[in-house]
Amino acid sequence: MSSRNSDLAHIFEEIATIYEFLGVENRFRVMAYRKAAYVVEHLTKDVENYLPVKKMVKISGIGPSIAAKIQEYLETGSIKTYEKLRKKVPHDFIDLLKVKGLGPETLKTLHRELGIDTREEFVQALKDGRVESLKGFKSKKVQNIINGLRQKEALEQRILLWDAIKLSQRVISFFKKLPEVQKIAMGGSIRRREETIGDLDLLIQARDKDRPKILKHLQNWEQVKKVLVMGNKKASVMIRPMDRQLDLRLFKAKEWGAGLLYFTGNKEHNIHLRKVAIERGWKINEYGVFEVESGQRLAGRTEKEIYKILDMSWIPPEIRMDRGEIHLAEQGKLPELVKLEDIRGDMQMHSTWSDGRQSIDELAHYVKQHYNYNYIVLTDHSKSSRIARGLDEEQFRAQIKAISAVNEKLGEDFIKAGAEVDILADGSLDLKDDILEELDWVVAAIHSRFNQDNTQRLIKACEHAAVNVIAHPTGRILGQRPSYPVDMLKVIEAAAQTGTALEINAQPTRMDLNENWAFEAQKQGVKMVISSDSHAPDNFEFMELGVAVARRAWCERGHILNTASWQEIEEFKSLKRQQVPLKVAKDGEK
Question: Please, what are the domains in the chain?
Answer without folding.
Answer: 3-157 (1.10.150.110), 158-251 (3.30.460.10), 262-334 (3.30.210.10), 340-579 (3.20.20.140)
